[in-house]
Amino acid sequence: MSSIISIPSGGRCTTASPVVIEGVGLHSGAQSTVRLEPGSDGLRVFDGNAFIPLRDVSVARTPRCTRLELPSGRRVDMVEHLFAALRIAGVTDADMSFIGDEVPVLDGSSSVWLDAFARTGLTRVGGAIECLLVAKPVSLTVGSSRFCALPGQFSLDCTIDFPNAHIGRQRISVDEQTLGSLAVARTFVLEHEIAMLKANNLALGGSLENAVVIGEAGPLNPGGFRVDLECARHKALDFIGDLMVLGVPVIGRFEIFAPGHSANNAFVEEMATSGALRRVSILEASPVSLAA
Ligand SMILES: [Zn+2]
Q1: Counting beta carbons within 10 angstroms of the beta carbon of residue 181, is it exposed (0 to 12), middle (13 to 18) or buried (19 or more)?
Q2: pLDDT tens figures, 52-86
Q3: H or E segment to which residue 84 belongs
Q4: What is the Cα–Cα distance from 25 to 247, expressed in whole angstroms?
């Protein structure tokens, strides 16, 4: 059996001009800056004195965010909302520099990045676009988190189940056309968890400006939830960002239950090391045939 897979966008893109975003880190509470320069060598990260390909950067398993570990020993926390924005916008090439150890949380979603890309505009980069195709089924269970990837057109089906009356069981499904609907969903936290997080030096920069805080009576944020199923959408957004640590879009049918960063990173590693992914290079948005 073979199926026809289309790649996400019309081709390779980078930002038309530099994007510089400053803000506070959710966990550290420290001010930091991210600079994205237009690029033509894929997604790269500055480390010491050179830009290195994102796919050569390792990822640590951390429960509350995704952490890059650069060859120099530097670490950069909470890259996931930025990386999800790159995937959603179709930015395939950019040179990223991080000043500080944690990417600013901004409003807790990917919106600020996407607004910035919309302001600067994107320009085409010549050459073939690279993707990783899921070439054979792969699955992983990590604690209560379950993941499955199948060959096929990109889709993501994400279910969460929280023992909380204001979250409960939520399921969201997106494909390439509706992926952008995840972008506005904010990170969330249960009000009773905040003291424990702060005691562990986490969420020190957290506020109602950058997270949905869910209390006994529901969200404490003015206006409540921003979109329906915001919590499931945000977990799906995080997963999209965590997939992008491989440096290029990963195309397949994903079904995930109760994802979290540490488990997401384990699944990405499983996909990358199990031979389930096939790297393809395509000059234009022409469909490619995948033996499934
Ligand atoms: Zn998140």
Answers
A1: middle
A2: 999 999 998 777 899 999 999 999 999 999 999 99
A3: helix 80-89
A4: 23
CB-based burial of residue 72 (10 Å sphere; 0-12 exposed, 13-18 middle, 19+ buried)?
exposed
Q: What pTM did the predictor assign?
A: 0.93
Cβ contacts of 218 within 8 Å, gap of 6 or more: 166, 224
Map tokens 């040179």 to a residue: 95
Q: How far apart are the CA of 230 and the centre of ligand 1, in A?
A: 11
pLDDT in tens, 159-218: 999 999 999 999 999 999 999 999 999 999 999 998 888 888 888 888 899 999 999 999
pLDDT of residue 10: 62
State the distance from the centre of ligand 1 to the C-alpha of 184, rounded, in angstroms: 11
Burial 195-211 (b: 16+ CB within 10 A, else e): eebeeeebbebbeeebb
User: Considering the chain, what is the average pLDDT of its residues?
Assistant: 91
DSSP-derived 3-state class of residue 2: strand
The tokens for 96 are 């990223």
CA 76–ligand 1 middle distance (angstroms) = 15
Query: Hey, which residues are catalytic here?
Result: 261
> What CATH number did the domain enclosing 227 receive?
3.30.1700.10
- 275 Cα to the center of ligand 1, angstroms: 28
> How many independent structural domains does the chain possess?
1
The dihedral through the CA atoms of 113, 244, 10, 149 has a sign that is: negative
Rounded Cα gap, residues 52 and 89, in angstroms: 22
